[in-house]
Inverse folding.
């Protein structure tokens, strides 16, 4: 067997498989990369790397004689190594220690507030419940989308789905200044994922691509096979049940981390209930949400005033 073809997740893995099949070392074989590996999109449509390995002739494998001269080349090597090491060691290292420690921290503060257009900023856990509600209401866009933007977003989603091997039609509607892109999921929920996480990731990607070329703060909502309506109904029912539980037990009920859209649904369902208040906890895209009975909220406010006095 003078030549074999092998596959792997990477080119290196495919080469290792081919060398094991030939039973030779790397320098004894000629490697030809037939195709590179691709990851696909969201784990779908990936392709493995493929290589062809053939044995080299004995003349090609024979080691080449080493050069005879070697003593005189060591002197010039010592002089260049000593001169750069004495001067750059002190000055560049001081600059490298001073700058990277200060600038990335400022960049992180800006990224946590600006890079994610769906997370309302400027509110903390200690803010009054009404202020937290207003922050969640800011998720709705302020300007109506243009027809060109809607068409561009529809074409972008269609291209992404085609790259994933899905041939489906994308329909677009505008609801309360929010663009809804809907399509049928022919993968038995694979594009929706657990609790809609895959669909949320796809929605986030489309929004980021569109936002780079458009100054309008338009939010694009992706829906697959009517999942968003089912999710909204489940969250509304959950909010009512947990609100009653908080009032019955007279203590706060805290939900697991939710994305901004799901938190907003909980806030809107309970905002007209005078016996409970809602507030988001923590920072970032995923936050916990607490449903607080009014009696416990009054005790908390009274305790905070007493501590201040």
């Amino acid at each position: 067997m003078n030549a074999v073809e092998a596959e792997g997740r990477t080119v290196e893995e495919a080469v290792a498989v081919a060398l094991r099949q030939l039973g030779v070392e790397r320098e004894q074989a000629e490697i030809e990369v037939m195709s590179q590996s691709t990851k696909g999109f969201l784990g779908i449509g990936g392709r493995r790397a493929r290589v062809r390995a053939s044995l080299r002739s004995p003349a090609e494998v024979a080691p080449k004689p080493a050069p005879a001269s070697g003593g005189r080349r060591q002197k010039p090597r010592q002089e260049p190594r000593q001169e750069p090491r004495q001067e750059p060691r002190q000055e560049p290292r001081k600059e490298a220690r001073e700058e990277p420690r200060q600038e990335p921290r400022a960049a992180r503060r800006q990224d946590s507030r600006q890079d994610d257009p769906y997370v309302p900023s400027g509110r903390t856990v200690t803010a009054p419940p009404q202020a937290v509600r207003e922050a969640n209401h800011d998720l709705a866009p302020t300007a109506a989308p243009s027809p060109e933007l809607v068409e561009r977003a529809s074409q972008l989603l269609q291209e992404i789905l085609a790259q994933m091997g899905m041939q489906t039609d994308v329909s677009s509607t505008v609801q309360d200044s929010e663009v809804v892109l809907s399509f049928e999921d022919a993968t038995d929920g694979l594009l929706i994922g657990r609790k809609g996480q895959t669909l949320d990731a796809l929605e986030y990607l489309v929004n980021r691509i569109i936002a780079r070329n458009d100054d309008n703060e338009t939010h694009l909502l992706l829906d697959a096979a009517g999942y968003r309506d089912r999710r909204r109904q489940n969250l509304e029912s959950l909010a009512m049940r947990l609100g009653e539980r908080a009032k019955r037990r007279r203590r706060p009920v805290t939900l697991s981390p939710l994305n901004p859209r799901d938190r907003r649904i909980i806030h809107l369902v309970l905002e007209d209930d005078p016996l409970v208040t809602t507030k988001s906890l923590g920072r970032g895209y995923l936050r916990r949400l607490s449903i607080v009975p009014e009696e416990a909220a009054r005790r908390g406010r009274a305790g905070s005033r007493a501590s201040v006095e």
